[in-house]
């Protein structure tokens, strides 16, 4: 019928670009720690304001719970976040809250502004030891074969000029 029932102020939040949990953030996260990663995916896509301190505190307190999640679920949320048009601010918040170090300890670099999720993931884990880091990430997140191979090729960097090396 076209009617919207908004008992928690969601329409105002959307208009202001505010991402928040319904009710108590700590209780919501304790029920499912995957909500931490979903929060950052939504923040990357819709967020235009800094999250409130209660939300950030609940996220920091819940970081250890991320270790209970299936690797495939973690990768699905990370892939979604990295595929947003501009994930940099959300990734910075994840870094500050300790989330990025928990789910992607190899993240020593920055995600490029352009590219798909795998290009951005490769940028995050680039740098010295990128090949070993790529292997570790692919194994821990249980990347499917094609994604694994592409990630490893991306972290290896471009082929040397001339094609062959001695």
What does this structure look like?
The chain has 166 residues and is an all-alpha fold. The chain is 58% helix and 0% strand.
The gist of it:
This protein is an all-alpha fold. It has helices at 10-16, 25-31, 34-46, 53-62, 71-82, 88-97, 99-103, 117-125, 130-140, 145-156.
**Strand percent estimate:** under 5%
Number of helices, counting only DSSP H or I runs of 4 residues or more: 10
Query: Helices and strands, in N-to-C order?
Result: HHHHHHHHHH
Shape: elongated
Task: Give the termini separation.
Answer: 71 Å
Q: Count all strands and give the number.
A: 0
Mean pLDDT: 93
Radius of gyration: 18 Å
Given helix and strand content, the structural type is mainly alpha
**Helix share, percent:** 55-70%
Q: How would you describe this structure in keywords?
A:
single chain; 166 residues; elongated
Helices, strands, pairings?
Layout: H1 10-16, H2 25-31, H3 34-46, H4 53-62, H5 71-82, H6 88-97, H7 99-103, H8 117-125, H9 130-140, H10 145-156
Helix pairs in contact: 2-4, 3-5, 3-6, 5-8, 8-10, 9-10
């Amino acid at each position: 019928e076209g009617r919207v029932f908004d008992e928690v102020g969601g329409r105002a939040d959307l208009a202001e670009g505010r991402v928040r949990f319904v009710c108590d953030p700590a209780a919501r996260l304790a029920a499912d720690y995957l909500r931490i990663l979903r929060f950052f995916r939504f923040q990357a896509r819709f967020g235009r304001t800094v999250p409130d301190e209660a939300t950030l505190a609940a996220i920091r307190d819940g970081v250890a719970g991320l270790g209970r999640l299936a690797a495939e679920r973690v990768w699905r949320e990370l892939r979604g976040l990295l595929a947003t048009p501009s994930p940099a601010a959300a990734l910075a918040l994840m870094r500050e809250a300790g989330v990025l170090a928990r789910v992607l300890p190899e993240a020593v670099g920055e995600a490029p502004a352009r590219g798909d999720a795998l290009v951005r993931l490769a940028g995050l884990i680039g740098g010295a030891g990128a090949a070993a880091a790529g292997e570790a990430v692919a194994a821990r997140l249980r990347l499917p074969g094609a994604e694994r191979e592409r990630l490893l090729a991306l972290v290896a960097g471009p082929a040397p000029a001339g094609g062959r090396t001695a």
